[in-house]
Write the structure tokens for this entry.
Amino acid sequence: MSTNNLDFIRSDLSKLEAYIPTINEEISQTLDILDANESPFDLPLELKEKLANIYQQQINNNRYPNGSYLDLKLAIANYVNQSGKLEQNTILKENISIGNGSDELIRSILIATCLNDQGSILVANPTFSMYQILAETLGIQVINIERLKSDFSIDLKLANNALNNSNSIKIIFIVNPNSPTGNCLNNEEIKWLEEIPKNILVVIDEAYFEFSNQSLINKLNQHSNWLILRTFSKAFRLASHRVGYAIANSEIIKILEKIRLPYNLPSFSQKATQLVLDNSNLILNSVKNIIEERDRLYQILQKNSSLKIWKSDANFLYLQLAENSTYINLKQIKDNLQQQGTLIRHTGGGLRITIGTPKENDLMLARMNKIINQLNS
Ligand SMILES: *Cc1c(COP(=O)(O)O)cnc(C)c1O
């Protein structure tokens, strides 16, 4: 069938590629998956068994899911208040919208603000690629600026120039801590965000909050133009269920609810989310193990003179080659690690390595050493 005559398709889509995740069933059985910042730990068996029972007893497969999520929103709001050490009822269920992954919320935010040539977005690279990818599928312009090479903080001079030179910017997307570089916002960046004019939406993506334990949630009520994104895909170990949430003032949330597809969250995902929230201490126990492993790997990798590595506040490490090791390249390392059995991410001019189980991490280190020794000799 010819594909040349799909005249009904928007012409700007022809230059886009579909997003192809690296993971498939075959790969995940043969490789250590350290490329997507998931938790290396499945749910504890006791919770899987509970979930199996819930599936059997509470889910009517022939019925649409509960479509209002009121109980789940309440449980999320409580978690946000507790984990953020906020007074009870600071964040209410009216301040929460739930998405099929935070990716869906990112798309809803773009639809609500910039669609129909109504605006563009600002991102500081390297950062999470999904803002750009989703914007482009909607025909929304992306204004890219660079981060500082030293610590990956946002180059605020460039950012202010971009804001001054373009009156189209409607959203600034910030990850805190940033992916792939692992750094949290510094005081200067936070001050800058606090002074962004109210006609620009500031999206603060806190996907790694449980690892960094740093959040701007305590300032949210003072900023009607701020929105915080969180996810259950990382520390809460629910990546397979696709659940993310937005926290913002109730007027913004009402708009997101208008755009949300009915029943965007399958029944089983709702139940799984409620279960992990009810057992958050048990689930989040693994966070400290992952942080210990992260710091152990950092100490070891940092001694390798071929590598340059940065401290991280998340569940991954970011590294580049030391300036004197130009004879190896990052893609070689990534490909060679994959041949040996460890999948990592080559992105944003560096390598991003998710913290896995201690065994996966030890294998990664041994494999990395082997590559670097070979290439150096
Ligand atoms: C992993 C990640 C997410 C999570 O996306 P989901 O769609 O909720 O799985 C969001 N933002 C960033 C920066 C991430 O790294």
Residues 37, 101-103, 128, 175, 179, 205, 207, 231, 233-234, 244 surround pyridoxal-5'-phosphate (CB under 6 Å). The mean pLDDT is 95. The two ends are 52 Å apart (CA to CA). The CA atoms of residues 45 and 51 lie 10 Å apart.
